[in-house]
Design brief:
mainly alpha, 5 helices
Length: 177
């Protein structure tokens, strides 16, 4: 039976990723991140989803496709259908208005998501600090226990040496053969 290394497993999981990265579920194993993630409001969840989709390659390709479609539709198809009366002629003022409105709405939503990411990072840093403090306290306790063990070992050695001296005195000098 063939076993795979962790690197191969990660590569396979990357290949299986969806074309829609915003639709994947994330595993929040760290308790601090899990707590912050579960305490999100509806608006925060929407902001995270919009920021996740807005910061992906599929969004860029879909957005560029819509812009090109708008331009082609207005310059070629509608001009023929409406007898050279385009809905949004060449400077594409309506398209500029739509793009500006989209940017105006998308920017604060992405900033809200970034604020949530900063809060999550802060909670994670606080959790790491507490864990580091516990680890440091454990190391101090282990150092004290090791020192106590060393002192006891020295006492046992001294007592063993004393016992050997006493036993050697009671036996007297060893006979010479």
């Amino acid at each position: 039976m063939e076993t795979s290394t962790p690197v191969e497993t990660v590569r396979r999981s990357r290949r299986r990723r969806s074309a829609f990265p915003w639709s994947e579920r994330h595993d929040h194993r760290n308790p601090a991140v899990k707590e912050v993630h579960e305490d999100r409001t509806f608006g925060e969840r929407v902001a995270d989803a919009v920021a996740k989709f807005g910061g992906s390659w599929p969004f860029i390709f879909v957005f560029l496709g819509l812009i090109v479609a708008w331009m082609v539709l207005n310059t070629v198809f509608l001009a023929r259908l409406l007898h050279h009366k385009q809905f949004d002629p060449y400077p594409f003022i309506a398209l500029n208005l739509v793009l500006s409105a989209l940017a105006g709405l998308q920017a604060p939503i992405i900033m809200m998501s970034q604020n949530r990411a900063a809060a999550r990072d802060e909670a994670l840093a606080g959790h790491h600090y507490v864990e580091a403090q516990k680890g440091e306290q454990m190391l101090l306790t282990l150092r004290d226990l090791l020192q106590a063990n060393t002192d006891l070992t020295k006492q046992v050695h001294e007592l063993t040496t004393e016992i050997h001296r006493v036993v050697a005195k009671e036996k007297g000098p060893a006979p010479r053969s």
